[in-house]
Amino acid sequence: MAKVKAMFPAILMSACVVVPLRAAVVFGQIEDFSGSHGWTSGDPNPNPPVTVPDSGPLGGGDSALRVTSNGGSGPGGKLVVFNRTLWTGNYPAAGVSTIMADLRNSGSTSLSFRLAFNGPGGWFVTAGSPVTAFSGWNSKEFDIRPAALLPVGGSSAAATLAAVSEMRILHSAAVGFTGAQVSGAFLVDNLRAVPEPSAFWMIGLAGLRLLFRKR
């Protein structure tokens, strides 16, 4: 039984694949930040996001994206990064209702992470997910089903998720999509597009059934 438990995470991860750069989200994609892949904080910014080698959860050979802010009122003052390529498109049609991410707060201020989505229905954000100052790596789940998203002037979460034009990762204790002014930094890695957790476990169980049938 111990052997089966050890194999279970691998079975679950087999549902996810690292995918090449394109302009549409697909079920199971993993952003491993081996490159910038369209992530930016806009121009001008004195603290643009950068891919840092050997800084991910696995250490050597594992890259992560570092996002920093200076807390000022101008460009670079807020902890926010966005993507208008790899993470756009129709999320419900792709079967994606949860985004998972590995996050590390490397600053001295506790952060509240949110994902934000823009589309035809306007801006919507996830509930905040806290990470303490100077934390280690944290695996976080963000529920992006229409009923779970919070409007920021938006009128229809379903319409936005059906045609996402921009996705953001940001810090904001208040419900908002622009990010909060703060002097801080965080690392993000292994951004994953998956179904809701219960469905993800069913995929794992299906994999186990196939494993036992082959024995």
Question: Could you write a compact summary of the structure shown?
Answer:
The chain has 215 residues and is of the alpha+beta class.
Question: What form results from the Cα inertia axes?
Answer: globular
CA gyration radius, whole angstroms: 18 Å
Question: What portion of residues belong to β-strands?
Answer: 25-35%
**Main sheet summary:** 7 strands, mixed
What is the share of helical residues? 10-25%
Structural class of the secondary structure composition? alpha+beta
pLDDT averaged residue by residue: 86
End-to-end separation in angstroms reads 14 Å
Please explain how this structure is put together:
- By secondary structure, this protein is an alpha+beta fold.
- The chain is built from 4 helices and 14 strands.
- Strands 1, 2, 4, 5, 7, 11 and 14 form a 7-stranded mixed sheet that branches. Strands 3, 6, 8, 9, 10, 12 and 13 form a 7-stranded antiparallel sheet that branches.
- Strand 8 (111-118) and strand 9 form a beta hairpin.
- Helix 1 (2-13) crosses helix 4.
- The two termini are 14 Å apart.
Give the tags.
alpha+beta; 7-stranded antiparallel β-sheet; 7-stranded mixed β-sheet; 4 helices; disordered N terminus; 215 residues
What topology does this entry show?
Layout: H1 2-13, E1 17-18, E2 29-31, E3 39-40, E4 50-52, E5 64-70, E6 80-83, H2 91-94, E7 98-105, E8 111-118, E9 124-125, E10 129-131, E11 138-143, E12 150-151, H3 157-161, E13 166-171, E14 183-194, H4 197-213
Parallel strand pairs: 1-2
Antiparallel strand pairs: 2-14, 3-6, 4-5, 5-14, 6-13, 7-11, 7-14, 8-9, 8-10, 8-13, 9-12
Helix pairs in contact: 1-4
